[in-house]
Specification:
The complex is a heterodimer of chains A (222) and B (322). Chain A contains 6 helices and 10 strands; from the N terminus they run E-E-E-H-E-E-H-E-H-H-H-E-H-E-E-E. Chain A is α/β, with parallel strands linked by helices. In chain A, strand 1 and strand 2 form a beta hairpin. The longest helix of chain A is centred in the C-terminal third of the chain and has 16 residues. Chain A is globular and about 50 Å long. The relative contact order of chain A is 0.21. Chain B is 72% helix and 0% strand. In chain B, helix 4 packs across helix 9, helix 8 runs parallel beside helix 10 and helix 9 packs antiparallel against helix 10. The longest helix of chain B is centred in the N-terminal third of the chain and has 37 residues. Chain B is flat. The chains are: A alpha/beta (222), B mainly alpha (322). Chains A and B meet through strand 1 and strand 4 of A and helix 2 of B.
Chain lengths: 222, 322
């Protein structure tokens, strides 16, 4: 499903070179749940950005179902992302002035679907994320947990095979974090491939069959 | 100091051309490095760096080439405005023939317009492939264009520096009107045959465009451009000026004629150049369909319509033809 080979990411600031990712090799199978675990600055978020095609590596290969997302021109990378990848961010990244319903509809706007089909998909995603009852409210009026559930619905609306979560519980209390984990468990049961970058110890107690990949200083610890 | 170089229009024009050239020179240097090392199948750090640099080069090139379209219009406006400074000149015709660099410069600028449009097509085709299939062709074309732009900048300066504001030039009537009985039309045509050919070629362009006969389409476009130029100068122009003896491709750019020349020449040159570039690029990349049939149809139809309307309006107002 996702194949990462020899991946490096280096940032340059003036004359300083900073190696964020060093020789990452990872093979994620379809339906797998991966926890990228590490402290801040260990390279988890950068790795997720590269998998999503939001940034380009300095060296190495990322294949998503044999499509080299790290090399695709922007147009094709966006198409691949829209079709196959859903993202959930630490700060939710919602449009605060739009309603829950509108936030979840946004990923489908570039599609060729009719409005009727779009509404159907949006309703289904809202139900899966358990946020239907708040669908008319503005995002700015939601609590942290509700914002996260809206973000989940938005990630699910295009029915992607892969869900990438970047520190999804960092801004949530324990109760909401556990609710989020329950939702993730449900999605995993649907066969979605899920990659979560987190340093939240709650994820270590997951009952699900998953793989924890520790990262330190941009490297995967064997 | 040369009076011409103190003119606002010339200062703006030369400064803009020089700035764009400076940007393009950066893109040129980076392009050569990219072309020498480009291997899209590779995942090594050099290739990733080259891909990033190619975004920069493409952004610069897109910007500069887009600006060149506007600068061509501004160049035409400038030479028209300079008619006030040069004795004998009544419009851009006298200014452009003020020295030996003017006409080659104008022809070069129009040729460059055709090449820029061809580059835009190659760029569009390249962007639609997952592995930048036409990147090398597009870059080679850019290098060729760059050399033409070097020549253009050289001619720009030579032309404006060599204009002598004390030396009288010929006006458009002398250049296009008084030919002492000689037939100025191509292939020994007379006006009636020229007009028949003009409309026949327009229909041939439209027909070959819709039937997707690319080679015939390119050929008919080139011929239409050639015949249309003479038709406007020696026939349609006289209806724009409402004077049978006034034959000039430049006077129609002036406010007296509501700047109609800009619309006429822009629709003719853009229509034919887009058509030719579209067909050439699709032959080059071996794609079957022409992409901008509608754009070409609209531009050339606008051109033919504008020309025809002037005759119709004149006839309706006066009951006779010139």
């Amino acid at each position: 499903m996702i194949k990462i080979e020899n991946l490096y990411k280096t940032f340059y600031q003036e004359k300083n070179e900073s190696n964020i990712l060093i020789n990452i090799n990872l093979h994620i199978k379809k339906g797998e749940l991966i926890i990228l675990k590490g402290i801040s600055g260990s390279g988890k978020t950068t790795l997720l950005s590269l998998i999503a095609g939001l940034d380009r590596p300095s060296q190495g290969k990322i294949l998503i179902e044999n499509d080299p997302i790290s090399k695709l021109p922007d147009l094709f990378a966006s198409q691949l992302r829209a079709k196959k990848i859903g993202m959930i961010f630490q700060h939710f990244n919602l449009f605060e002035h739009l309603s829950v319903n509108e936030n979840v509809t946004i990923p489908l706007i570039p599609s060729t679907l009719s409005m009727k089909e779009i509404y159907k998909k949006v309703d289904k995603a809202l139900e899966l994320a358990n946020i239907t009852h708040k669908k008319s409210l503005l995002a700015s009026r939601l609590s942290g947990g509700e914002k996260q559930r809206t973000a989940i619905a938005r990630a699910l609306v295009a029915n992607p095979d892969i869900i990438l979560c970047d520190e999804p519980t960092a801004n949530l209390d324990k109760e909401n974090s556990l609710l989020f984990i329950q939702t993730i468990e449900r999605l995993h049961n649907f066969g979605k491939t899920i990659v979560i970058a987190t340093h939240d110890p709650l994820f270590e107690d997951l009952k699900l069959k998953n793989r924890i990949i520790p990262m330190v200083n941009g490297q995967i610890v064997p | 100091m040369n009076e011409i170089l103190l003119s606002n229009q010339v200062i703006i024009y030369l400064l803009s051309e020089s700035t764009l050239f400076f940007l393009l020179a950066i893109a040129f240097i980076v392009s050569i490095r990219i072309l020498l090392q480009w291997d899209f199948e590779s995942f090594n750090p050099i290739q990733f760096t080259l891909e990033k640099q190619s975004y920069l080069v493409t952004t610069i090139t897109l910007f500069v080439f887009a600006m060149k379209f506007f600068l061509l219009i501004y160049f035409v406006f400038t030479i028209d405005a300079l008619a006030l400074l040069i004795p004998g000149a009544m419009c851009g015709a006298g200014v452009i023939t003020a020295n030996e660099y003017g006409t080659p410069l104008l022809v070069l600028k129009l040729s460059l317009l055709a090449l820029l449009i061809l580059w835009f097509y190659m760029h569009a085709y390249d962007n639609r492939t997952k592995n930048h299939l036409y990147f090398k062709q597009k870059s080679w074309l850019f290098l060729v264009i760059f050399f033409f732009i070097v020549l253009e900048l050289f001619l720009d300066f030579q032309y404006f520096l060599a204009i002598d504001t004390h030396l009288p030039v010929s006006c458009c009537s002398a250049l296009f009107g008084q030919l002492e009985g000689a037939n100025p039309l191509p292939f020994g045509l007379n006006i009636s045959l020229l007009l028949i050919l003009f409309y026949l070629l327009y229909f041939l362009v439209m027909l070959t465009l819709n039937l997707n006969y690319k080679l015939l389409y390119i050929f008919s476009n080139i011929l239409f451009l050639y015949i249309a130029y003479y038709s406007v100068v020696y026939f349609f122009g006289t209806y724009i000026y409402q004077l049978p003896t006034h034959k000039c491709p430049f006077c129609m750019l002036q406010s007296d004629y509501f700047y109609v020349g800009y619309f006429l020449w822009a629709s003719l040159f853009l229509g034919t150049f887009i058509g030719i570039s579209d067909a050439l690029s699709s032959l080059w990349v071996k794609k079957t369909n022409l992409k901008h049939q509608k754009t070409v149809s609209y531009l050339l139809s606008l051109f033919v319509l504008l020309c025809t309307v002037y005759i119709a309006v004149y006839y309706l107002n006066n009951g006779v033809l010139l």
